[in-house]
Amino acid sequence: MSDKQTQGHIGLTTEPLDVGEIARRVVPPNCGAIVTLDGFVRQFTKGRETQYLVYEAYEPMALKEMRKLIDRAHEQFQIEHVAIVHRLGKLEIGETSVVIAVAAPHRRAAFEACEWLIKELKRTVPIWKKEVYADGEVWVEGEQGATPEDNSA
Amino acid sequence: MKITTLFFGATADAVGDRVIEIELPAGATAGEAVAAVVERFPALAKQSLLFAVNQEYVGRENRVGDGDELAIFTAVSGG
Questions:
Q1: Chain A nearest C-alpha distance from B77 (Å)
Q2: Comparing C-alpha atoms, which of A83, A75, A104, A61 is closest to residue A5?
Q3: Which of A17, A45, A65, A141 to mutate to test the interface with B (most CBs of B within 10 A)?
């Protein structure tokens, strides 16, 4: 992949995620920093105890949206490489659900791009989580935000 | 014309199915297609819905064509 716009790795998997391995998949020689987000399953949300989570995706569209995020991140930030991998299926407390790793020549752009990428992922990538409690379960609804404006029915 | 409709998460639970085929008049818009599905599965009316056609977010006025894939879902919650 010689085009800078395509410097990225995306994935969806039901297998456990290895954060360090994903972060180190590509480290361009002109880079000096990788910022990595390790998003994992929280035990308590607003005081209520979660037993486990189930993630589901509209897989082909989720991969397309992840690819678009990487292209947009390259347009906005001085970064060299991005990896985004999201886990699907049943996840126990503490297991990693999403890894976003951004390599850049300098750390500031990597921090900013990583924060932007997780915010946009939660808004646009078609993945849903079900929280399962001792006494019930619920599909979590994110903030309405997917484009375009007149989409919501 | 016929389109394939996909459901995920909360909408799959509401419909009790993940994939259905629906018949629509030629020239129907995405908004009209979603309305037809909601009419057939009234449980969806309680949900705040988003949709995509052929794996892209589109506006309500976008036309759908024979064989298109319409996905209907609630606000995404990955991460």
A1: 5
A2: A75
A3: A141
Q: How many cross-chain Cβ pairs, A to B, lie less than 8 Å apart?
A: 108
Pairing of strands A136-139, B2-7: unpaired
Can you tell me the distance from the alpha carbon of A13 to that of A16, in angstroms, rounded to the nearest whole number? 8
**What is the separation of C-alpha A77 from the centre of its chain, rounded to a whole number of angstroms?**
17
Contact A32, A107 (CB under 8 A): yes
Residue of A108 and A27 predicted with greater confidence: A108
What is the predicted ipTM? Answer: 0.96
Q: Tell me the two tokens of residue A45.
A: 């949300």
Q: Please give the angle made by the CA atoms of B68, B69 and B70, to the nearest 5 degrees.
A: 115
How does pLDDT run across A23-73, given as a tens digit for each residue?
A: 988 788 999 999 999 999 999 988 999 999 999 999 999 999 999 999 999
Q: Can you tell me whether residue A113 is helix, strand or coil? A: helix
Distance CA A100, CA A73 (A): 12
Query: Taking a C-beta distance cutoff of 8 angstroms, is the pair B7, B17 a contact?
Result: yes
Rounded to 5 degrees, φ, ψ at A114 are -65, -45
Strand boundaries in chain B, DSSP class E: 2-7, 19-23, 49-53, 56-57, 69-74
Q: Edge-to-edge, what's the strand order for the sheet holding A81-87? A: A8-13, A81-87, A96-104, A33-40
Closest Cβ–Cβ partner in B38, B55, B77 for A61: B55
CB count, 10 Å around CB of A132? 15
